[in-house]
Amino acid sequence: MLTVHHLDGNKANCEDWNLAALCQRCHLRKGRI
Protein backbone atom coordinates (compact mmCIF):
# COMPACT_ATOMS: atom_id res chain seq x y z
CA MET A 1 0.00 0.00 0.00
CA LEU A 2 1.23 3.49 -0.83
CA THR A 3 0.69 6.58 1.28
CA VAL A 4 1.04 10.26 0.44
CA HIS A 5 3.80 12.23 2.13
CA HIS A 6 3.67 16.04 2.13
CA LEU A 7 7.27 17.15 1.61
CA ASP A 8 6.84 20.49 3.37
CA GLY A 9 4.90 18.95 6.28
CA ASN A 10 1.78 20.99 5.50
CA LYS A 11 -1.11 18.57 4.90
CA ALA A 12 -3.18 21.39 3.40
CA ASN A 13 -0.59 21.91 0.62
CA CYS A 14 -1.57 19.37 -2.05
CA GLU A 15 0.46 20.82 -4.93
CA ASP A 16 2.01 18.11 -7.12
CA TRP A 17 5.57 19.20 -6.26
CA ASN A 18 4.82 18.76 -2.54
CA LEU A 19 3.56 15.16 -2.69
CA ALA A 20 5.51 11.92 -2.63
CA ALA A 21 4.12 8.37 -2.78
CA LEU A 22 5.79 6.24 -0.13
CA CYS A 23 5.20 2.75 1.19
CA GLN A 24 3.78 2.76 4.70
CA ARG A 25 7.10 1.68 6.27
CA CYS A 26 9.04 4.47 4.50
CA HIS A 27 6.39 7.05 5.42
CA LEU A 28 6.66 6.09 9.09
CA ARG A 29 10.46 6.34 8.93
CA LYS A 30 10.26 9.72 7.19
CA GLY A 31 8.08 11.06 9.99
CA ARG A 32 10.72 10.19 12.59
CA ILE A 33 13.53 12.10 10.88
UniProtKB/TrEMBL annotation:
Name this polypeptide is given: HNH domain-containing protein
Species per Swiss-Prot/TrEMBL record: marine sediment metagenome
Lineage: unclassified sequences, metagenomes, ecological metagenomes
